[in-house]
Amino acid sequence: VNPPLPNMVMKHISELTDHPLNIIIYDKPNDNRDKLRASLIKSKNKTGIANKEPCKIDSNGVVYSGHRRKWASEEDETGVLGYLKCEYIDHTFDPESLNDPTLEQEEADLLDEYNEPDIIRSQTSWPVVLRKYNYMNNLNYKKTKKYFSAKERNIWCAEKCGFQPDPFKKMVEIYDVGRNDLIDKVVQGYSLP
User: Fold this and answer.
1) Residues 94 and 19 in one domain
2) How many other C-beta atoms can be found within 10 angstroms of the C-beta atom of residue 172?
3) How many domains does the chain have?
4) Which member of 50, 76, 78, 107 has the greatest number of CB atoms within 10 A?
5) What is the overall mean pLDDT for the chain?
6) Pairing label, strands 8-12, 55-57
């Protein structure tokens, strides 16, 4: 019998692993983490701990929430960032879950639960929302052989992102045809026609 793990721990970033679904949902190459990295360094220098909000990890170090903090720390060239405050969750990632659409859905829902839009920044940006929607729509297809209906799309929109259905529908259509340049324009403040 293993003794229970302490709930909060300091973990070196080399001990943390990206959750495979976070890699799909979040656009790591195009996510600018400069401000986040500067904030982590400032916090580390001021308090001794880089991240005020703990990363949520399983017992094997798989990151459920805090992947951007992990990525920003990995990119730190100052040598200040190395350890992140982490909190163990009551779940262990099983890679086999990604081979079963129902279990994959449960895993995606758990990730979503740990990355609530009202709590964690950049969960409601158009690029993140559209990537999540696209992933969940494709996962629905794997499970049911059907993509979301218009009604299901609107329900997903209402539950997950807080955007109005009409702009969301237009943004999904733009995303589906690969016009990321137009999504970037909306992010910069331009209006949809």
Assistant:
1) yes
2) 19
3) 2
4) 50
5) 86
6) unpaired
